[in-house]
Structure formats: C-alpha cells, structure tokens
Amino acid sequence: MTDRPLWAGRFSTPPAPEAHALGRSLDVDGVLADEDVMAGRAHAEALRTAGLLSDDEAADVTDALGRVRDAMLAGTFVFDPADEDIHSAVERGVTELLGEAGAKLHAGRSRNDLVVTDVRLHLLTLAATAADEVRAVARALVQQAHGHIADPMPGSTHLRPAQPITVGHHLCAHAWALTRDLERFADWRRRANVSPLGAGAIATSTLGLDPAATATRLGFDRAFDNSLDAVGDRDVLQEAVADASICATHLSRLAADVLRWTDPALAWAELDEAYSTGSSMMPQKRNPDTAELARGKAARIAGDFVTLAAMLQGLPLGYQRDLQEDKEPAFDALETVALVARALAGAVTTLRIDTAAMRVACDDPDLYATDVAEALVMGGVPFREAHRRTGELLKSLAAEGRTLAALDEDGWKKFGLPDGAALLDPDRSVAARAAPGGPSTGSVRAQLAALDALLA
User: Fold this and answer.
1) From CA 40, how far away is CA 420, in angstroms rounded?
2) Is 279 a catalytic residue?
3) How far is residue 144 from each of residues 133, 346, 431, measured CA to CA in Å?
4) What's the CATH number where 387 sits?
5) Is residue 434 a part of any domain in this protein?
6) Which pTM was predicted?
7) What digits encode the pLDDT tens for the residues 66-99?
8) Are residues 185 and 99 in the same domain?
9) How far apart are CA 384 and CA 446, in angstroms?
10) Which is the catalytic residue, given 174, 279, 280, 440?
11) How far is 233 from 229, CA to CA, in rounded Å?
12) Which of 154, 227, 375, 396 is the one with CA 20 to 30 A from 330?
C-alpha cells in the first residue's frame, strides 16, 4: 500500500487528503474496469509490435490485466488509498503482479487518451443497449397498432377533440418518433467509433506506436485524426446525451398519452397491474407510476445534458481536469433511457385499449366540423367562406343548446349539404383521409409495413 500516486516523482509531499478526495473518481469510473483492461491489452500489443515489450512480457501483461479485472469483478481486488481512478488502480495492480514488466505498460500512453478510450468503449455499449430497449418500445407500439388499424378515436389538439383518427394511426405516430431516435443513435455511433488511444497526453509519443493498428484491435472503425482533439474534446459524450434527451422526450410524451388514456375521466385504456403501484394509505388506488416516472425521468436526462454542456463550454484545447466530470451525466443519461424504455415496452405491450369507449367518444359532433367545411369546399365554396359558414352554424346551434347531430334533413339542405348527416361518422371520416401518412386503413397499413421493415 502507498499514499503516493503514479505521478508522484516530481513532488516531495503527497496530496492533501481533501485535494485527493476531490480528485478521486473511482465511484464513477469504476465501471470502466473491463474497458480499461481491453485498452491495456491493445496497448501492450502495440508496445510489443514496437519492440518495447518482449513476447513473454506482453503475454505476462495481458494475463495480469485479466487477473486484475477478475479480482475486481469478484470483489477481491484491494484498492490502494493512492488509487485516484480505475486506470491508476489497474496499472498498479498489474505492476504489483509483474514488477518491471508491469511498469512498462504505460509507455507511450497517458491517462488522457486512456480515459477517453475507455469512455468511448463504454458509451458504445450503453448506447447499443439503450437503442435495443427503445427498439422494443417501438415494436410494442407497432404490435398494438396492428390490432387497431381501423378502430376510430378522437384525435386532439390542445387536449381538445379535433378530428377522428384511428388508434393505429396514433400509435404509429409514437413509433415513427422512436425510429428517428434509433437513427440518431446509429448516426452518433459512426462518429463515436474512433479510437483515441495513442494520442498520448496531447501530442502522441516518440515510441513508434501504431494508433491505427490499436484501433483495429479494440474494434473501432479507425484511429483519431488529431491527437489534441482526441484527448481534449468531449462532443462524443455531449452528442450521446443530446440524443438520449431527445429520445427521453419522446418516451415522456408516450407516457403522457398512456396517463391520459388510463385516466378514469376518459377510461380509454387500462394499465396492467404489473406496471401500476398501490397507495400506502388508500387501498383502492392503482397508480400509473411507471408512466409517471417515465415522464419525470426526461427532466433528469435533460439536466444531464445541461450539466455536460455547461461544463464543456469555454474549455481551451487540451485536457483539463474539468473533464473528469463528463462521465457521470453521460453514463446516467444512457442508462436511464434504457431503464425507462425497458419499463415502457412492457407497459405498452400489456396495455388494454378500450376501443368501444373510444368509438363512443367519436360521437362528439364537433369532431366533424372540418369534414363539413371541406364538403362545402368540394362543392366549390372557397375555404375561408366554408370555414366562416361552418363556424357560424356551430355558434347558432350552441346558442340553442344543440349540435350538428341535431340538424334534420331540411336543416342540412338549407346549409347547402343535403347529405350532411352522413358526414358525422367516424369510419367515413377516417376512410376519407386516405392521403399517405393519414389515418385511413390503407395509410396505416402502409405505415406499419414500413415500420416493420425499419424495426426488423
């Protein structure tokens, strides 16, 4: 055991305890043990290829790295008071096992390039997991939509009844948003899949290492283009958190619809008991906590983005210790998106939709006001005139305590639409909206075919 950090050669006294406590990050970066060992093995091979480690030494280092990782996973690794982070702990563990051969491992690398390499590897895994969970939500929406292609429901704007759509159309809207989130994660992956290892502190090294070969060993698409940029920028984290925040917003909006549909005031759907909770005081309660938490977590993830953006803005080029604060919000954002999506996928899959109640809600005659105005347009009336006439009709009926449903045949003829009563039908209204992307049965089937292909 020692109280002296790896960089202590220049210093005559150890760090003050409070300074060491401030800089210690094991509670956050301890999750990077696997990635640090992967990076260490790739770097050991780079040193062997450059003639800086013998074949036997490289093999010993590779073996020792695995032993350190296994001990960490088993909880038997003893961390030293001087271990500032997972990177120094792994290196110390290897050096204690091997002596001089272990002490050679850090040649040609810095914690600057090692940290960001580990983080990229970890983020690629977290983002892939998050994307898988988001894809499961989209598939659950599509599965539900397949069963409700032609079931009408009131579409709303401003949370007020607007026009008839179908349940399938509504569910597809959420699914389309999530496919864009998946595209963002995939596009981010192309930019993130770049290895910084070999960039060193800021200027590579004089040891003849091959960053491109190291990148290949680690499974990256390629190596960095500029060593200073590789160690000093964190846009890869910022973009990942931005994508996570946008996705969390979409999941939150889905949760908001689940909450609205399952509100007893509407009673359009019922959340399964497995995704509900009870009250500690009120025995009758079945609370939609899964959806409420999904809605609330979006704020937390947005906060992660603000934290990261505020920390990064204004930093000059090169590594600054401020960057130690980049990992916690990035890891939290991606882990939380995956957690929320996993729960919502189950909630959507088991959601019981009351199509009869939705159809009853479509009896509201105001839902067909636009159909009435457009029927006038089809008869040659300019739209603004049709809009005015329909609005005046609604105002007149409301003053009498009536609705469009109260108009008899003579009333519709007087208005100029002899067949106007037929317009107040949800199936007819939906079928008439056959434009691509609309709520008609044919359009929804086409959307579902496209979504099935995207999510396959």
Assistant:
1) 76
2) yes
3) 17, 12, 20
4) 1.10.40.30
5) no
6) 0.93
7) 999 999 999 999 998 888 899 999 999 999 999 9
8) no
9) 33
10) 279
11) 6
12) 227
